[in-house]
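Recap from last week: sequence in, structure out.
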Amino acid sequence: MKYKRDVFGPLVTGRQLKAARALAGLSQKEFAHECGLHFSSVAYIEQQELIGSAESTKDKIIYALERFGVKLTIEPGPGAYLVTGNEKRCNDSQEDAAQSCHADSLC
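Predicted structure tokens:
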């Protein structure tokens, strides 16, 4: 499946958010608090195949993830990675794949 960048940013799927939250080491409840969202909102978004949330909600999610050193990516598919000192992104072809989490594999 080919994913397009939506107008609100790189957050594409609920599985991607779940993977990113796992990289941040946060429960849904902790993450909701960090975003300023209700727990049920985070749970709902993580269940969606394609996310259609408002721009402000996506911004809150993206900013919270960035505070924990997690960036989102849409290529080669929706996923997330931990930012290291030199901002290298890990992918399946690198040995340090433990720092990368693609939505299709869910860490």
